[in-house]
Amino acid sequence: MGGGSYKRVYRSTAYKSRLTNGLRDDHDYIVIGLTVLKRGLALLERGTAAIGVVDKALSFLARFADQCHHGKEELILFPLLERRGMQFERSPLKELVSEHGMGRYFLRNARRAAERYGSGEGEALGDLEHYFESYFNLIIGHIGKENKVLFKMADNYIGPDEGVAEAEKIEEQLGYAELLAELEAIKRELTQIGQS
Ligand SMILES: [Fe+2]
Ligand SMILES: [Fe+2]
Questions:
Q1: pLDDT value of residue 94
Q2: Could you tell me the residue ranges of all domains in the chain?
Q3: What's the 192 CA to ligand 2 centre distance in angstroms?
Q4: pLDDT exceeds 60 at position 14
Q5: How open is the CA angle 63-53-28, to the nearest 5 degrees?
Q6: For labelling, which of 65, 156, 188, 194 has a CA lying 20 to 30 Å from the CA of 98?
Q7: Helix 164-174 vs helix 4-12: angle between axes, to the nearest 10 degrees?
Q8: Separation of CA 46 and ligand 2 centre (Å)
Q9: Among the CATH numbers 3.30.1050.10, 3.40.50.12780, 1.20.120.520, 2.60.120.10, which is that of 18-195?
Q10: Maximum Cα–Cα distance across the chain
Q11: How far is the CA of 77 from the centre of ligand 2 (A)?
């Protein structure tokens, strides 16, 4: 089930199986998750959505973006680049790893605020919006840096198949295909709410 991202990407491009291809693919799904969440929050503000769908989108991002995607970067791609001579302190790695940490902080607090809102604390909505906005801006900027800078550098440091099997193993363990199915279901749920 896992590993679909790599296979799908390299079937449709001239690339061979590259670790960065799968990671770029993840970025697209993360942006979809963020967009869905933004829409969910807008509906919540208007009182037309339940907190449940926002919770689901936050939970998706915690598992897909933080655990799975940042996990693959921090356990496979970044250490591989370090072993090939990229210096942590003098390369984009330091900033990117720090941003993963900041993202986790914003996301955890957004989830905490959603929990408070769900248990009747109306004023927690402001906190939820604040942490979501911080998370959204951080991750969009972060993805841009990786796509435009780090991944291009990485393709010169590592060979075509390197790290791919390990990345697929992590995806398998974390239920990559199921996570993407979950994203689709959240999207559908929001469309239905938006139309009602
Ligand atoms: Fe990253
Ligand atoms: Fe990334």
A1: 98
A2: 18-195
A3: 30
A4: no
A5: 50
A6: 156
A7: 130
A8: 32
A9: 1.20.120.520
A10: 55
A11: 10
CA 53/CA 189 separation, integer angstroms: 7
What would the mean pLDDT of 66-73 be, rounded to a whole number?
A: 97
Q: From the CA of 179, how far away is ligand 2's center (Å)?
A: 17
Query: What per-residue confidence (pLDDT) applies to 139?
Result: 98
Whether 5 shows a pLDDT value over 80: the answer reads: no
DSSP-derived 3-state class of residue 145 = helix
* Residues, Cβ < 5 Å to ion ligand 2: 146
Determine contact, residues 41/128, Cβ cutoff 8 Å. yes
Q: Tell me the CA–centroid distance for residue 123 and ligand 1, in Å.
A: 32
Record the pTM.
0.91
Cα of 133 vs centre of ligand 1, distance in Å, is 18
CA of 47 from ligand 1 middle (Å) equals 34
Centre of ligand 2 to C-alpha 152, Å, is: 13
